[in-house]
Amino acid sequence: MSIRVLKAGDVYRIEGPAKVVVRRGQVYATGVVYTEGQSFTVLRARRLVIKALSESEVELVLGPGALLERVDPREEIIDEWESKTASIDPKGVIVIVGMIDVGKSTMTAMLGNKALARGYKVAIIDADVGQNDLGPPTTVSLARLTKYITHLRQLVAEKSIFLQATSLERIWPRAIEQIARAVDFAKRSWQVDTIILNTDGWVLDEEAVVFKRRLIDVIKPSLIIAIQVEKELAPVLDGYNNVVVLPPPPQVRSRSREDRKIHREMGYGRYIFPPVELAIPLDKIPICNLPIFKGIEIGDELKRILARAIGTGVLKAYQVGNRVYAIIENDAWVVRRVSGFQVIGLPIDFEKGLLVGLEDAEHFLVGLGVMKRIYYDRRKAIIYTSSEVERRIGEVKCIRLGLVRLDDNFNEVEKAYSLLKVEHE
User: Which co-factors does it depend on (predicted)?
Assistant: First the structure.
């Protein structure tokens, strides 16, 4: 622990883990003015910029690897962000957009704090499925803000929606639907005054622009906060007049693709480890997006005819309407028309290692799991999941197969996009 006197106007950069206690004076951080007796924390490996608004005395507790440095105020954008957001009434829905690593999460926390300071009831929605700060990777997660924070990681998701993937490129239509559902839930069930929506960093290509604009059109936010380096968000923002454009922090930490992957893998482990093995009866808790046990099981003679038609052995087959789902003796997926039916050939063991979401009756996430095996004769699935899910298994109404395959150490080994061709609600 150390005591430091800060001069009025001094700007400091802190890298956690650290705790700051204001003994006298006024210190500004993340949209909040902290005064005598108040404190805030900086999480491990996270960075926070603070400013002394008057001569202040602070007590600093710096953990292992923590850093504290005084910086030239011109090296940071703390004043610019504050001046451009000071007059904003953060009521309604505010959407934060920008590329990866431009400070969207920090701005989300900052605006949430400002809304809370006005006495508003506040919900935070993190829709960054790859680097979610509120809940597990692959989810849109929601939490209510009841006290000031410096990082979104200080919140715990109260509700999460499993979006199956760590990026939205191939699933963005469903993402729009589910993000809108999250916004509606916060309005209807929590009756909040303010919703701050943090979005993912996919903005640069043409399809990303379509996604972001359709999301904005569906959500109808009262304000869009755009953090941009140059003019890369112009195609997204074109035609909207409720936009505040901000620069990114010059010293923001940029993470490589590998760093982000490691961060996700640690996230899987945090929400599943130590795993428990559950045998789940698929007659009672079905697979949400692959109705293999919901139809009529096809007999041996028809299986032989089907095998000749698709050129591979068929172990099990189920007719659901005009579709036939077949478990096949093949490594490749098969999608083919046969006698007026669409035949979906699922490779044997296709399910092994798939990340799954165990959902409740409202399709909110109860917990994540990893599918180990489906026993077709017994109509059971073996899933590794957390003891929390085991405790709440009575709430689980269906299992949604994800598009990420993990190994036994929760490392990502494959994107299972073939499932998109065949999944069905």
Answer: a divalent metal cation
